[in-house]
Specification:
The structure is a homodimer. Chain A folds into 3 domains: 169 residues, Molybdenum Cofactor Biosythetic Enzyme, Chain A, CATH 3.40.980.10; 78 residues, Alpha-Beta Plaits (2-Layer Sandwich), CATH 3.30.70; 160 residues, CinA-like (Maf protein, Alpha-Beta Complex), CATH 3.90.950. Chain A is elongated. In chain A, the strands form 4 sheets. Chain A has a 6-stranded mixed sheet with strand order 2-1-3-8-7-6, sandwiched between helices. Chain A is an alpha/beta fold. Chain A contains 15 helices and 17 strands. The N and C termini of chain A lie far apart (60 Å). Chains A and B meet through α2, β2, α3, α11 and β14 of A and α2, β2, α3, α11 and β14 of B.
């Protein structure tokens, strides 16, 4: 059967605006990747009558309902009961769910209350979705061409349950499978990327090509639909090759690979360590390295020199450089990069100095100068961003890291040509 | 009349999961603050039939509908037409809206197309909501105890329109007004704060008291309902005084004031500058200062010393301290703070060294040591967090900053007692 989905988030916190409904967008994106249409979403409070009404309204247009939240342990949490009632089945104690709950609580040294056992009650005939990250199991209930999938509310619980158990189930319902591959581009704006691709994009139906932009990075998602994974991969390959040819070294990676991963890979291949010098980025370059596990073999550290004096004292920027060219100049950025490489004794260094927002300066808001030092080679560049303060700062960190990546790539290519 | 609201977001990007529905939570929160109940939310695509159906479903339970999105300039954007049709009124060209659009486009040097004029068409008899941040005006339509408020989709347009025009309109419908004041607490977990407050919280109906936790900070929102703002403020004052007495210096500010603001205020009062030394925070302490405008008179910079060697070279941490106590110890944190104060020549410094996630170390994941130096005084503390890598890092930055604030406060109090 052709699936038409509706997503229902259950939770008073969402209705009060205390939390943002990220679960709905996570589920929606997963469904879109599977090729399942969603035409409507709802949010209701933890109220049995309204939950039931939401089910009734949803099944008027859809045959697959996915809910998040409302599976809590208290007496008030009756959404599961409403689901079972709608399908005309009773709740039964699920012994495996009970063991999961007991295990979860014991591992955390918490006492088990009677309320917890209520969470182990599941609708008769359902497919249980056991929860390794919380106490509430989810479940799949299916009858007369209607499917109900109820999932817990906390993102740390729903995400692994959806990815690990719901997606495989939904895949199993379709004869075709869909596979996506996402290429990441940095160094060109979204509209420029779209302009370059335009003809290809509109002409393609399988595989499809869709662009998404976020924080200075444009993702191109290629999605193929076919009978087997192998077939999908074969359909994706020529499109990927074509895009890589078109955008050259602006493509820094695919799927889970981050910009930082791409930089780290080059540093490892070239046996280099790296450090940073920051001004208006104020720690965001360091954060790009430290937020990932396993970067401490390459990333030695960063100096945020927010005052001119600290640029001089700690990074060895010359007073006359600051006077002649200003703190926001490629000349200053170059001396900052050199200073960082010196201070941290690293083979590579990246530096940034910019203006995050309108000031008295004669230089424009959003102007960012970056410099990279790799061995003896020093390169610099200037970018102009036009967002708000902290978006400009984020973009500056991403562009600085991307500039580092491109210079590393060039140096590596030259080395391999010379050897 | 008693208002019952329903929020409808119109946009295919939300149904595809490409963007998160932050508009709904923004509107929901605003309504909650006004004391207007919302029992249901919907999301629909840019499809006239489904938009109309969403209106019909919503007015079955609610008398106030607020929509976001669907007011674009193209032929496909027909949500406004559906709204006018539902209320049985035609669309008319609004000359002021037309001027707004022309002005907006001219300021940006963009060409005006016929499609833009379509955006200046508004339902007859509506209250227009002119848009200074985009081309699409919003509007309020009201008839037979039903209100429809349609707003544009981009957050940069809807937020000022909602705050500046919709909230005053909704306030004018109520005889009572509601005023809130939010106190910020750092240094105590959400459940501990709630336990301490429990009796007060449940007993209160006007003003009400509601806690919200985010990234190591617990907000307590006091909301009063009365005939005048003055009356509301008088009802809030004793509750605020009581909370401040109960939590002492854990309360760092109110309303818009951030933790960084509180630190900066003390630094200015005490005529001190500040610097930081970071390890697993990796720039997040620096970011707390640099993300705000106007901090460069106090914040000089930060050194992220991610390797042991850089802790020794750049911050002067002793080799024997690292050997004897380890990199994650209060002893190391103290030497890092001292090193930062020395390197940046600041009167105050804050340092952090911790373990963001499970490693081979004998010390537990989430353990974070912080130290603060203010003049000659040096203090240190250790915290244990139990979240994931980057949440632990965020919490560490917040707790380090809060520790700095508390030591500054103590030093200031001692100084004023001695003088």
């Amino acid at each position: 059967m052709k699936l038409k989905a509706e997503i229902i988030a259950i939770g008073t916190e969402i209705l009060l605006g205390d939390i943002v409904n990220t679960n709905a967008s996570y589920i929606a994106r997963g469904l879109a990747l599977l090729g399942i249409d969603t035409f409507h979403q709802q949010v209701v409070g933890d109220n049995p009558a309204r939950v039931k009404q939401a089910f009734e309204e949803a099944y008027r247009h859809a045959n697959l309902i996915i809910t998040s939240g409302g599976l809590g342990p208290t007496e008030d949490d009756l959404s599961k009961e409403m689901g079972a009632e709608y399908f005309g089945v009773p709740l039964r104690m699920d012994e495996i769910a009970k063991n999961h709950i007991a295990g979860y609580m014991v591992r955390r040294g918490r006492a088990i209350t009677d309320n917890n056992w209520k969470q182990a009650m599941l609708p008769e005939g359902c497919i249980p979705l056991y929860n390794d990250n919380g106490t509430a199991p989810g479940f799949i209930l299916s009858k007369d061409d209607k499917i109900l999938i109820m999932l817990p509310g906390p993102p740390s619980e729903i995400v692994p349950m959806f990815d690990g158990q719901v997606i495989p189930y939904l895949r199993s319902l379709s004869e075709d499978i869909m596979i996506s591959r996402t290429l990441h581009i940095c160094g060109m704006g979204e509209s420029a990327v779209e302009d370059k691709l335009h003809d290809e994009m509109i002409a393609m139906s399988n595989p499809t090509l869709a662009p998404y932009a976020k924080e200075g990075i444009v993702d191109l998602r290629i999605t193929a639909k076919a009978k087997s994974e192998e077939e999908c991969r074969e359909m994706i390959r020529p499109v990927e090759d074509h895009i890589r040819e078109m955008f050259g070294d602006l493509v820094f990676g695919a799927d889970e690979e981050t910009l930082t991963d791409a930089v780290l890979k080059l540093l490892r291949q070239m046996d280099l360590t790296v450090s940073a010098a920051e001004s208006t980025c104020g720690g965001l370059i360091a954060d790009r390295f430290v937020r990932q596990s396993g970067t401490s073999d390459r990333f030695m550290g960063s100096i945020t020199a927010y005052s001119n004096r600290s640029k001089v004292w700690l990074l060895g920027v010359k007073e006359e450089t600051l006077e002649k060219h200003g703190a926001v100049s490629e000349e200053t950025a170059i001396e900052m990069a050199t200073g960082a490489a010196e201070a941290f004794q690293t083979g590579a260094a990246v530096a940034e100095t910019g203006i995050a927002e309108k000031t008295d300066s004669s230089k424009p808001s959003g102007m960012v100068c970056v410099a990279v030092k790799v061995g003896d080679r020093v390169e610099s560049d200037t970018y102009y961003f036009s967002r708000r303060r902290n978006s400009n700062r984020e973009l500056a960190a991403v562009y600085a890291l991307n500039f580092l990546r491109r210079i590393l790539l060039q140096v590596k290519d030259e080395q391999s040509q010379n050897s």
